[in-house]
Design a protein that fits this description.
Number of helices: 3
Strand content: under 5%
Oligomer: single chain
Amino acid sequence: MEPPPDTPAARQPRRAVLASGGHVGLVSVSLVLAFLLAVWASGSSFLVTLVTTVAIESVAAMSLTVLVGWAGQAA
């Protein structure tokens, strides 16, 4: 049952709750980019290969999580 139109809750538009702390994403992206730059600047091909492999496998694991966990079906 809907509340009467004169109640304060009915006059307020419903909004989705977004993550608080607007600069948290910017800080985390900056830290990741600084880490990747440090690995690249180190000159070690092993570290670059290791970080690249971890990044690729992380994307694959997140994709599998979405496919099986959220969608509920396997490929």
